[in-house]
Hints:
Elements: E1 2-3, H1 6-18, E2 22-28, E3 34-39, H2 47-64, E4 70-73, H3 77-93, E5 98-107, E6 113-117, E7 126-133, H4 137-148, E8 155-161, E9 172-173, E10 176-183, H5 184-193, H6 199-206
Parallel strand pairs: 1-10, 4-5, 4-7, 7-8, 8-10
Antiparallel strand pairs: 2-3, 5-6, 9-10
Helix pairs in contact: 1-2, 2-3, 5-6
Amino acid sequence: xxxxxxxxxxxxxxxxxxxxxxxxxxxxxxxxxxxxxxxxxxxxxxxxxxxxxxxxxxxxxxxxxxxxxxxxxxxxxxxxxxxxxxxxxxxxxxxxxxxxxxxxxxxxxxxxxxxxxxxxxxxxxxxxxxxxxxxxxxxxxxxxxxxxxxxxxxxxxxxxxxxxxxxxxxxxxxxxxxxxxxxxxxxxxxxxxxxxxxxxxxxxxxxxxx
Length: 210
């Protein structure tokens, strides 16, 4: 896993806290694992917050994958994220980039197919954008889907890597470079610096103590 600079990570964490997108309690993850906290980018739903989110993701795309030609968003949360990124890349970075996403179910009528939006080809440099990574299953499914369509993704960007320290052993997923804007270590550090007692739940989970 390759993390971006801590300044961008802190910007994201501040945004998550303002939007109440970082929740504490008892949550069951897609992997079946129980977690004492939950990161839900779906709570970032107001205009002022979405604007900041778009600025963050566009900055990361332009820095980490400047030659990207298409952004792919796994359904469902990834759909809005690639739209935000592409719009901000056009506005602030003078970069006209395509977007596409997958259907949960193949459509037999109308335009049909699995992919919606720009149809990437083998010549495209596709970057997958999603909210978080925990087990990595959704990202692996995205890579497999694109590969079956004749496309090899050049990168994956997630807003938060919520895996434990022991699972953060590689900077790739299925051979594709993986970049995180923030991580559980960053979340714990930021909350600890603020004297927030909730930092312990994140730190303990990250270190494998819960």
